[in-house]
Amino acid sequence: MHFYFETTKLCLTVLLPIILYWIHWRWRHRRMLELAALVPGPPALPILGNALFFMAKSEEQLDKLARLSETYGQYVKFWLGPELNIYVKNPTDVKNLLTSNKVNQKGPVYEFMTAFIGRGILTGGPSWRLYRKIATPTYNKKSVKIFNAVFNAEAKELTNILSSKEPTKTFDVYYDVLNCTTQCVCQTLMGLSKEDSKNIKYLHEVITKTQSMYSLIFTKMTRWWLHIPFIYWLTGNKAKERYFIRLVDEMTSDILQKRRNALQHETVSEDVQGVVDRFISHGLSDEEIKLETFCLFTTSQEASAKIASAVLLFLAHLPEWQEKVYKEILEVIGQDENVSEEQLKKLQYLDMVYKEVLRYMSIAALIQRTVEEEVTIDDGKITLPVGTSLVIPIHDLHRDPRYWEDPYKVKPERFLPENVKSRDPNAFVPFSLGPMDCLGRVYATTLIKTLVVKVIRRVHLEADGRLEDLKLQVAISVKYVDGYNLRARKRRPFNAYT
Predict the structure, then answer these.
(1) C-beta neighbour count of 282 within 10 angstroms
(2) What are the binding positions for heme in this chain (predicted)?
(3) Cα dihedral sign for 46, 48, 50, 55?
(4) How many C-beta atoms lie closer than 10 Å to residue 152's C-beta?
(5) What is d(CA 446, CA 444) in angstroms, rounded to the nearest whole number?
(6) pLDDT, tens digit, for every residue of 417-442?
(7) CA distance 34 to 12
(8) How far is CA 355 from the centre of its chain?
(9) Where are the beta strands (DSSP E) in 338-429?
């Protein structure tokens, strides 16, 4: 009997504070709960919410999100612990929300990235507007036009590498492309000379381990128990995080030091100033500069490499489209050594393939924002309460059969002018919208298309199987599980324009 009473006492001691906290939390968030009840969604467990639903391999996450939409429609609520998430896939609401000043802060999921890139342009925070304002001139059209010389030079080196490959051997083109985009970013956005770009401390380690770093961040995002510091440490993940942070810090410290040394002996024109120089001139601290430097570095070279590799892979799998793109290049550009931005704008077939890549495998699968003021959606039927995490499923929106015929098939022709006119323009938002949209859309588009033109003009690409059978996964960004595998064969001499 004594044991029974002691056990009961212990249970009450543990459970009573939890029950009281739960009652207090529900009272304090009664408005949120009242509005959330009007949004469809899967049943949630106490405390955990729907966190168990998202406990899956990274290649399964995209399918899970798609199933939510198929089951509940364009508006879905789910709980991650006490955090209310509302998933919105209606194109009109997507546009209105992303351009609203009531939803103008990044969501809590970005907190998992701050150890590597701080609270800045990508993750939000008190200084993101200032950092973005400082960096923006480096990404504008005038600067990109000047950077085009670097894009052409590095793309030519990539072309030489690919044209020398064994034509019968299949390889993952991503790593060759990654080295190219990395050099382009170092010599433009980072403001480094080519010599300095090839001698950055730990550069090779950082670019080859970026995917592992992304996987670590994504694993922590989707495993609720890893949010507990002791368990995160016990599982060895904290040690991995420290290792990655040390590599990044060493690399960005070296970039910063190289630019400080160079600025003592040279004056850089405003039009070609890299982001590091701009951050230095505006008096940011070394820590601020290093965090923002890595943020802009990795979102520029890594994302561009994935998209460019996917364009090459699509062309390898779609020989009729590769031929269209190749002939168009010869007609528009011919044998010109360098590719200009004006010429790129005339390449309509290439643009269609590029956009289909962005649709089929959106580089950012999801966008999350925090609702700072109540805002209505669905023609006034739903009100998003303050504190809600708004989730915009870009990848799923780009595969919604209401806006895309045969959405799971690769069809560049869906971007023919007549097809574009018949589709809701807000159903395609590859670079997001509003004040927090992608800073580097012009930069990345020019870099990627220049690279592809230089390669296709001299190299014929081939691949086996169907694109639709290749598995995708999300680990921060969307990529192919098994890489970007193709074969490269040098074109015949009379077609080998460089």
Answers:
(1) 14
(2) 438
(3) negative
(4) 19
(5) 5
(6) 999 999 999 999 999 988 888 899 99
(7) 30
(8) 15
(9) 367-370, 375-377, 382-384, 389-392
- Model confidence at 126: pLDDT above 50: yes
Q: What's the whole-number mean pLDDT along residues 153-170?
A: 95
Mean pLDDT of the region 254-259: 96
Structural tokens at position 469? 């059978």
The sign one gets for the Cα dihedral 121, 368, 300, 178 is: positive
In three-state secondary structure terms, 107 is coil
Q: Which residues contact 81 (CB under 8 A, 6 or more apart)?
A: 47, 48, 49, 51, 224
Long-range contacts: 100-103, Cβ < 8 Å, 24+? 100/375, 100/434, 102/371, 102/372, 102/373, 102/374, 102/375, 103/369, 103/370, 103/371, 103/372, 103/375, 103/384, 103/390
- The CB-based long-range contact list for 109-114 (8 Å cut-off, 24+ gap) reads 109/221, 109/366, 109/368, 109/389, 110/368, 112/217, 112/220, 112/221, 113/217, 113/476
Residue stretches of the annotated binding site for heme: 438
Is 307 within 8 Å of 363 (Cβ atoms)? yes
Q: Which residues are annotated as a binding site?
A: 438
* Cα 180 to Cα 312: distance, rounded to the nearest angstrom: 14
Instruction: Give the mean pLDDT of the chain.
Output: 90
Residues constituting the chain:
498
The tokens for 249 are 């810090």
Q: What CA–CA distance (Å, rounded) separates 495 from 498? A: 9
What is the rounded end-to-end Cα distance, in angstroms, of the chain? 90
Residue 38 confidence (pLDDT): 92
Contact 392, 366 (CB under 8 A): yes
The residue to which tokens 């300095």 are assigned: 196
What does the longest C-alpha to C-alpha distance in the chain come to? Answer: 96
Residues in a beta bridge with 479 = 473
